[in-house]
Amino acid sequence: MTTLTVRLSAIADAKARFVEAGRRALAGQTAEAVPSVNFTSYDDMHRVLAPSRLAIVKALAGHGALSIREVARRVNRDVQAVHRDVTTLVNAGVINRTENGIEFPYDRIHFEYDVSAAE
Question: Which of the listed CATH numbers 3.30.230.10, 1.10.10.10, 2.40.110.10, 1.10.150.650 matches domain 3-112?
Answer without folding.
Answer: 1.10.10.10
